[in-house]
DNA sequence: CCGTTCACG
DNA sequence: ACGTACGTGAACGGA
């Protein structure tokens, strides 16, 4: 007989995490009666994951019974200062228990005990009976139960995945045994459970003590021998507290549970009950997984999408009805500059036409219709369609709705770019995700014609559906203007930039390649000689063996997998061994060669240009990103900067021209915060870093500012934009944390409204669940409620940074649209080629450069009106290298 | 397919 | 005390 596997789930912990994992869709997950269902939904997804990954024969979900437990009797403050759970969460708990019943899973709670204790008790009983046990929770405390028969699975990334802890993996991560976790918490306390441990003892000190003494008992037994110190005083003073906290941290494995192991058999769903439950809560996608319609009456169940062959005649007839039509141009891969089209579909609510080829795009009527601005179309990924149709000589016009762009704006967090998944999240569950139809990874292939056509017809139907629901969502977020006047027009601008491409001179790159490969060989030989052996210098693992094991250098930093050999570390080891210098040089040269010289050569199209793709629906802040190749990270400093000499205009007698915003993020901050001092600095066009230095170093004039002061002030300004912490600033400019904290204090003294702004953003994120930019670009921050300090802190910094970075992104996007308009109106030959976040690069005939030098800065600095002026700096030259100010 | 490293703003 | 700066993409090595 196979071993029994008991899965024990910490119900409250998983439910709570489920609630916040889908906090951003709180409004969308609501029954007509007003019951929120997001936590129930996410909890059920988690159940699917657990059942799938842990494959239980027996299962129990344990819940906390109430606030009063044996622990609060021992220590009244236990879990004392927890904020009350939101009503939207509490109302869902009874339904989660109902869901469990329908899924054939027992749930249980016990007065005076926490879910942890039920789990500990059942786990202990079960392993004595020879079960394997898996505990599922979001709470690290339960890892204390891990042993050879008990695995603890912790939720990661909300509730989307599980990480399994065995005693070995626990030991690897914490370097103590699971049981020692109790001692650890006894010493360091637990802020979220609100017990203190020993004063001034944190994780680092506590771990050190445990490595030395093993347990709290043994520590105190040997305390006499410890040298006198602050630490010792605290240990003596807080002895009772240490023992009490250890007791609080220890899970009770002898709780008086009234449930028996043999009641926990898991036998699968109670199908009828579960269907009724899903229907009650409108869980369409779960029903779909069971192949059951939302509507119980088959006659009214969803109709199969009907479609006809897409022919010119059929299209003409359809178009003459003069209705908006959804258009789908399908291809398998992402690179729409070259990827072949595998099908085309067009349609509205009544008629859908589908073809499994691109013949229709060769027809004149079709071309005319696609180019007709008056003929309204709905699409998914407009920029893709624009570039693809351009290959057929078609200037695609009339698209007023792009479902991909719209869903991105509504929630940038949800970074799926699959029409099926997006449609599903808006309640249309008829369309399969592309992956299920086309396969994934190496197995991507065109399916049989009928399946393909059905899929495309479904895409048209999904687009029709989304066109009705997404605009409402945009409106609700006050994002109409962002969509209609920024993102949609920007798609056209970006498409043109991608189509035009930028010319790269292969001769420049080949010459560099010759030089670099020679130097690389020399460095390689020098490194092997100094190491006394050959090895793969590109392997950080092998390199760390050479440096730290063989040569005995001191490792300064750890990574997940070993010792770090990053530049930061190597710079510090530079003086200790000559090999380190060679390695740093090797790394720099190898990077230039492989990523830039060879990488760029590979990306050059037959027209001698590189055509990047700007991803318009990816970043969390509203910036663009650039891929295949990435033209937004071409080296700008040091030796790598020479790469820019290969970027040249497409015609003789032309030049490259570049304009960039000066200090745009700080200017945006000055505007957003309304800080008078900072605004004045920009109005007077002071050197902002020197000005900041003067203020925070308490000087009377900028003349007293030394270069070093300016450097530190500059780093502080950066830190502020990133959502400052003393720790991060200290690390960055090499000062003590205390000094950094003083810096920040005097910074906030000088720019008081900046501090107010930072606090306000965090508060807004907590209250509204999101922050937004000047153009109402929105980012949800569910982690702002996280219990874990690092996770929560990250969300807080994001809350401070996103409106700044995102507003700057809004501004340059507006400038790009206006600029393209100006080039057209003024009949200039100049073309906009690249955008690098705060910089625009053009090419133009020599005689237009003077015009650009006037026009571009004017358009860029008037893109929006802020409370401070925007400043733009420009340069021109025969290559990108020369066109850099 | 993930982790490390390093390029950009 | 707890450990991090914000946002990206590509190459490479090693499971």
Automatic annotation (TrEMBL):
<dbReference type="InterPro" id="IPR002421">
    <property type="entry name" value="5-3_exonuclease"/>
</dbReference>
<comment type="similarity">
    <text>Belongs to the DNA polymerase type-A family.</text>
</comment>
<dbReference type="Pfam" id="PF00476">
    <property type="entry name" value="DNA_pol_A"/>
</dbReference>
<dbReference type="InterPro" id="IPR036397">
    <property type="entry name" value="RNaseH_sf"/>
</dbReference>
<keyword id="KW-0239">DNA-directed DNA polymerase</keyword>
<dbReference type="InterPro" id="IPR008918">
    <property type="entry name" value="HhH2"/>
</dbReference>
<keyword id="KW-0378">Hydrolase</keyword>
<dbReference type="InterPro" id="IPR054690">
    <property type="entry name" value="DNA_polI_exonuclease"/>
</dbReference>
<dbReference type="InterPro" id="IPR043502">
    <property type="entry name" value="DNA/RNA_pol_sf"/>
</dbReference>
<keyword id="KW-0269">Exonuclease</keyword>
<keyword id="KW-0234">DNA repair</keyword>
<dbReference type="Pfam" id="PF02739">
    <property type="entry name" value="5_3_exonuc_N"/>
</dbReference>
<feature type="domain" description="3'-5' exonuclease">
    <location>
        <begin position="306"/>
        <end position="475"/>
    </location>
</feature>
<dbReference type="InterPro" id="IPR002298">
    <property type="entry name" value="DNA_polymerase_A"/>
</dbReference>
<dbReference type="InterPro" id="IPR020045">
    <property type="entry name" value="DNA_polI_H3TH"/>
</dbReference>
<dbReference type="InterPro" id="IPR036279">
    <property type="entry name" value="5-3_exonuclease_C_sf"/>
</dbReference>
<dbReference type="InterPro" id="IPR019760">
    <property type="entry name" value="DNA-dir_DNA_pol_A_CS"/>
</dbReference>
<keyword id="KW-0548">Nucleotidyltransferase</keyword>
<keyword id="KW-0808">Transferase</keyword>
<keyword id="KW-0227">DNA damage</keyword>
<dbReference type="Pfam" id="PF01367">
    <property type="entry name" value="5_3_exonuc"/>
</dbReference>
<feature type="domain" description="5'-3' exonuclease">
    <location>
        <begin position="4"/>
        <end position="267"/>
    </location>
</feature>
<dbReference type="Pfam" id="PF22619">
    <property type="entry name" value="DNA_polI_exo1"/>
</dbReference>
<dbReference type="InterPro" id="IPR020046">
    <property type="entry name" value="5-3_exonucl_a-hlix_arch_N"/>
</dbReference>
<dbReference type="GO" id="GO:0003887">
    <property type="term" value="F:DNA-directed DNA polymerase activity"/>
</dbReference>
<comment type="subunit">
    <text>Single-chain monomer with multiple functions.</text>
</comment>
<protein>
    <recommendedName>
        <fullName>DNA polymerase I</fullName>
        <ecNumber>2.7.7.7</ecNumber>
    </recommendedName>
</protein>
<dbReference type="InterPro" id="IPR001098">
    <property type="entry name" value="DNA-dir_DNA_pol_A_palm_dom"/>
</dbReference>
<keyword id="KW-0238">DNA-binding</keyword>
<feature type="domain" description="DNA-directed DNA polymerase family A palm">
    <location>
        <begin position="640"/>
        <end position="848"/>
    </location>
</feature>
<dbReference type="InterPro" id="IPR002562">
    <property type="entry name" value="3'-5'_exonuclease_dom"/>
</dbReference>
<keyword id="KW-0540">Nuclease</keyword>
<keyword id="KW-0235">DNA replication</keyword>
<dbReference type="InterPro" id="IPR018320">
    <property type="entry name" value="DNA_polymerase_1"/>
</dbReference>
<dbReference type="InterPro" id="IPR012337">
    <property type="entry name" value="RNaseH-like_sf"/>
</dbReference>
<dbReference type="InterPro" id="IPR029060">
    <property type="entry name" value="PIN-like_dom_sf"/>
</dbReference>
């Amino acid at each position: 007989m196979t071993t029994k596997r008991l899965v024990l789930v910490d119900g409250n912990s998983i439910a709570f995490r489920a609630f916040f994992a889908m906090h951003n869709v709180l409004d969308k997950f609501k029954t007509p009666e007003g019951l929120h269902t997001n936590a129930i939904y996410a909890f059920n997804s988690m159940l699917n994951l657990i059942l799938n990954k842990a494959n239980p024969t027996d299962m129990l979900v344990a819940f906390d019974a109430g606030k009063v437990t044996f622990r609060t009797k021992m220590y009244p403050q236990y879990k004392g200062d927890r904020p009350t759970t939101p009503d939207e969460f509490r109302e869902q708990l009874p339904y989660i228990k109902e869901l469990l019943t329908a899924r054939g899973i027992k749930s249980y709670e016990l007065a005076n005990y926490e879910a942890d204790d039920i789990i500990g008790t059942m786990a202990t009983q079960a392993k004595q009976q020879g079960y394997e046990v898996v505990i599922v929770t979001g709470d690290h405390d339960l890892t204390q139960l891990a042993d050879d028969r008990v695995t603890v699975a912790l939720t990661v990334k909300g509730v989307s995945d599980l990480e399994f802890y065995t005693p070995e993996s626990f030991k690897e991560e914490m370097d103590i045994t699971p049981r020692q976790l109790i001692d650890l918490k006894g010493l360091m306390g637990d802020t979220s459970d609100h017990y203190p441990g020993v004063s001034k003892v944190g994780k680092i000190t506590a771990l050190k003590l445990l490595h030395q003494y093993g347990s709290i008992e043994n520590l105190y037994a040997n305390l006499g021998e410890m040298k006198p110190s602050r630490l010792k005083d605290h240990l003596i003073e807080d002895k009772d507290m240490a023992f009490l906290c250890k007791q609080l941290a220890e899970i009770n494995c002898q709780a008086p549970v009234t449930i028996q192991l043999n009641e926990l058999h898991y036998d699968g769903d109670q199908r009828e009950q579960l269907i009724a439950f899903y229907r009650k809560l409108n869980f369409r996608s779960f029903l779909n997984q069971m192949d059951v319609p939302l509507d119980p009456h088959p006659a009214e169940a969803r109709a199969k999408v009907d479609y006809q062959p897409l022919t010119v005649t059929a299209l003409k007839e359809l178009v003459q009805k003069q209705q908006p039509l959804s258009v789908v141009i399908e291809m398998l891969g992402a690179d729409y500059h070259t990827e072949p089209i595998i099908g085309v579909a067009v349609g509205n609510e009544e008629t859908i036409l589908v073809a499994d080829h691109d013949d229709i795009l060769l027809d004149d009527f079709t071309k005319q219709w696609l180019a007709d601005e008056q003929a309204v179309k709905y699409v998914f990924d407009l920029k893709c369609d624009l570039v693809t149709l351009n290959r057929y000589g078609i200037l695609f016009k009339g698209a007023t709705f792009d479902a991909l762009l719209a869903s991105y704006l509504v929630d940038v967090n949800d970074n799926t770019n699959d029409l099926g998944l997006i449609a599903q999240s808006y309640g249309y569950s008829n369309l399969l995700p592309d992956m299920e139809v086309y396969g994934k990874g190496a197995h991507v292939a065109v399916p049989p014609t009928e399946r393909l056509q059905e899929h495309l017809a479904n895409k048209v139907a999904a687009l029709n559906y989304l066109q009705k629901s997404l605009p409402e969502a945009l409106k609700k977020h006050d994002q109409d203007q962002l969509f209609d006047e920024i993102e949609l027009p920007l798609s056209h601008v970006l498409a043109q930039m991608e189509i035009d491409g930028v010319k790269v001179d292969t001769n420049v790159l080949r010459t560099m390649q010759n030089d670099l490969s020679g130097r690389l060989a020399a460095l390689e030989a020098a490194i092997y000689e100094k190491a006394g052996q050959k090895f793969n210098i590109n392997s950080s693992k092998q390199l760390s063996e050479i440096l730290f094991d063989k040569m005995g250098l001191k490792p300064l930093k750890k990574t997940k997998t070993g010792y770090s050999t990053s530049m930061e570390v190597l710079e510090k080891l530079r003086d200790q061994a000559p090999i380190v210098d060679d390695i740093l040089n090797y790394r720099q040269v190898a990077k230039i060669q492989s990523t830039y010289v060879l990488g760029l050569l590979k990306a050059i199209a037959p027209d001698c240009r590189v055509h990047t793709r700007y991803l318009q629906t990816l970043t969390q802040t509203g910036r663009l990103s650039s891929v295949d190749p990435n033209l937004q990270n071409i080296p700008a400093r040091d030796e790598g900067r020479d790469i820019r000499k290969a970027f040249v205009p497409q015609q003789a007698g032309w030049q490259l021209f570049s304009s960039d915003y000066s200090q745009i993020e700080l200017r945006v901050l000055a505007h957003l915060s309304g800080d008078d001092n900072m605004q004045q600095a920009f109005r007077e066009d002071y050197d902002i870093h020197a000005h900041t230095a003067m203020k925070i170093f308490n000087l009377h004039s900028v003349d007293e500012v030394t270069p070093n002061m300016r450097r530190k002030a500059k780093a502080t300004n950066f830190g502020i934009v990133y959502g400052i912490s003393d720790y991060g600033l200290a690390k960055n400019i090499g000062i003590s944390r205390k000094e950094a904290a003083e810096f920040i204090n005097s910074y906030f003294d000088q720019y008081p409204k900046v501090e107010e702004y930072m606090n306000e953003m965090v508060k807004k994120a907590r209250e509204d669940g999101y922050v937004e930019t000047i153009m109402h670009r929105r980012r949800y921050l569910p982690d702002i409620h996280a219990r874990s300090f690092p996770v929560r802190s990250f969300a807080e910094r994001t809350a401070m940074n996103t409106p700044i970075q995102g507003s700057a992104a809004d501004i340059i996007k507006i400038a790009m649209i206006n600029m393209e308009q100006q080039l057209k109106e003024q009949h200039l030959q100049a073309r906009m080629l690249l955008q690098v976040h705060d910089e625009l690069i053009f090419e133009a005939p020599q005689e237009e450069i003077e015009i650009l030098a006037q026009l571009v800065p004017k358009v860029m600095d008037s893109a929006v009106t802020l409370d401070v002026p925007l400043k733009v700096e420009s340069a021109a030259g025969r290559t990108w290298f020369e066109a850099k100010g």
